[in-house]
Specification:
With 242 residues, the chain is mainly beta. It has one helix and 18 strands. 4% of the residues lie in helices and 56% in strands.
């Protein structure tokens, strides 16, 4: 799975020329678990506790649910959900070092939740469709943390939350339609956040909020359309109360 996400980052760099279809993810040959489901109301649950965990889930049809829990070093997970039913739900929890997660969803009301703890995390989420929700939570202690989110054309009314706590945080978000919301919270050192939003119909109205509390913070926001809102706060760590 190593370096698989590099192709995702390259795709994200071209996201402003967004299409409504993604390239099928590449399944590495070392997958410890491979699940393929076709039909309606599919449910897949994978739990792995070992070294070099690999999980690949492909669901085609309606109303998918996929849950992956991995504990140990060198974990990777790929979830691909496609269909016309609502909603598609993907949940990934990874604990250990060098974790990598990829989630690809097409359809309406998609939900992707990724939680990673350990060191050297990478997360990529791509959604095509309306009403998508993405939450990426990368917990304290990470070096080389990275989160990439791509909500493609026709992905309006999307909501994305990225929380990164630790060292060397990075986040890239592209939302290529209207009435999307992106929230990024970063705490640590050497942080970076880049958000690109675009709007073509329905009044546009994209919202981007970036909160960075670290030395070396950098933020770049690009919004196209009408009635957009951008908020950037850098410095001054929040007060944590019990």
């Amino acid at each position: 799975m190593k370096n698989v996400l590099n192709t995702a980052v390259s795709a994200l760099a071209l996201a402003m020329a967004a299409t409504v279809a993604y390239a099928a993810p590449v399944i590495p040959p070392d997958a410890g678990s491979v699940v393929t489901q076709t039909g309606n109301e599919n449910v897949a649950e994978v739990t792995q506790d070992d070294v070099t965990n690999g999980s690949a889930i492909t669901q085609t049809g309606n109303k998918h649910e996929a849950t992956v829990e991995q504990n140990g070093p060198d974990n990777w997970s790929i979830i691909e959900q496609s269909g016309t039913g609502t909603p598609n739900v993907a949940t990934v929890t990874q604990a250990g070092s060098e974790n990598e997660s990829e989630v690809y969803q097409s359809g309406a009301d998609n939900e992707a939740i990724v939680s990673q703890s350990g060191v050297a995390w990478k997360s990529y989420v791509e959604q095509i469709g309306t009403g998508g929700m993405i939450k990426v939570d990368q917990k304290p202690g990470a070096e080389e943390a990275q989160s990439d989110v791509f909500q493609s054309a026709s992905s309006n009314n999307g909501m994305t939350d990225v929380i990164q706590t630790g060292l060397e945080n990075k986040s890239m978000i592209t939302q290529a339609d209207y009435e999307n919301v992106a929230n990024v919270t970063q705490t640590g050192t050497d942080t970076m956040s880049i958000i690109n939003q675009s709007g073509s119909t329905a009044g546009n109205g994209n919202v981007a909020n970036v909160f960075q509390y670290a030395d070396g913070a950098m933020s770049t926001i690009t919004q196209v359309g009408n009635d957009n809102i951008a908020t950037v706060t850098q410095g001054t760590a929040p007060i944590i109360t019990p």
